[in-house]
Design a protein that fits this description.
Three copies of one chain form a homotrimer. Chain A contains three helices and eight strands. By secondary structure, chain A is an alpha+beta fold. Chain A has a five-stranded antiparallel beta sheet. In chain A, strand 5 and strand 6 form a beta hairpin. The longest helix of chain A is centred in the middle third of the chain and has 14 residues. Chain A is elongated, with a radius of gyration of 16 Å. Chains in contact: A-B, A-C, B-C. Chains A and B meet through strand 4, helix 2 and strand 5 of A and strand 3, helix 3 and strand 8 of B.
């Protein structure tokens, strides 16, 4: 069973879509979500305190600053904007796909785990996530 | 086929549980392990030399120091202790899940690969890992 | 259905093998690729501009320099060469496995996504990647 979720983004940050996914799965099996882009990521993170999401975004913004930052002067792929190559780097440091067991119609997530799309680009994007549920 | 493994941890570091997993799988299929926490990770790493595990832990401790370190003053989620938000960050940099093909009852790991839980918190924890084996 | 791909490497960098994988999959299901080594990785990255691959490699070379670099003096696992322990660290920061939905015989990759083996060692290696396709 396969489908595709679309997550609308509006700048860097984490966008939760746990409910969309939870509403689609059924039975017992394995859910796999894969993002069809190389400048955004999928992460499972704490959904209790929104500060965690802000802190995560700020950590990665400091680890991989825009190409306008002197420390990134060695990067060559810069003509799609100062946020483009850093987005590819962040997309390599963070997951492209997630796999989550499903039991009796429920995602086997821990109490504090939510499913997020992590946007790395500045401009708004429609992000596509392919879902596969194996029986 | 699904089960849940529990790994007891006692401070930051890598805890191998390859044998528990190898003893549970059977037949030919795909094994997926997912940790139900956002402050610990699952990794496949070299099991030959324990120095590799110590070095890995020290690398991540330097890349993401406690919030008491001046370089981390920008973090806001600090009320659960100086090791909490760094643990979430490490958990985003390292895998939440692993998928390993199984062939004739054996994990298709390379010669030097072991399965580890990577604990990021200081205090002891009971960590739950959900396992799904598809036929 | 399982097989094993071999990717020959000749120093650090990204080696694309999307075509080998695309030629093997069939039907509708989930493909999982797992590398049987702890000093190389698998990544999905942009396949349009080769500069992206060079920049990625340079980012990781700076984030995790050789053990001859003074900043890495704390590492202890050094007797297999200055590129060995950094390779293990990079292998923990980058994926050991990839899972990609397959639809009607086609990998459900986005337009710009390619499948790469990311080599972290200096010397040439034959790298083995186990593939599992679930129906």
């Amino acid at each position: 069973m396969q489908t595709r979720f679309t997550v609308q983004t509006n700048g860097p940050g984490l966008y939760e879509f746990t409910r969309d996914v939870a509403g689609w799965v059924r039975g017992t099996g394995l859910l796999t979500l894969m993002i069809q882009h190389t400048s955004a990521s999928l992460v499972i993170q704490e959904n209790a305190d929104p500060e965690v999401q802000t802190d995560l975004q700020n950590f990665f913004a400091r680890l991989v600053p825009p190409t306008t930052d002197p420390s990134m002067a060695y990067l060559t792929h810069t003509y799609e904007g100062p946020d483009d190559m850093p987005a590819h780097i962040k997309a390599s440091l963070l997951p492209t796909h997630l796999s989550i067991p499903v039991t009796d119609g429920c995602l086997a997530l821990g109490t504090w785990q939510g499913i997020y799309l992590f946007e790395h680009r500045d401009r708004p994007h429609s992000r596509h996530v392919v879902a596969h549920l194996s029986g």
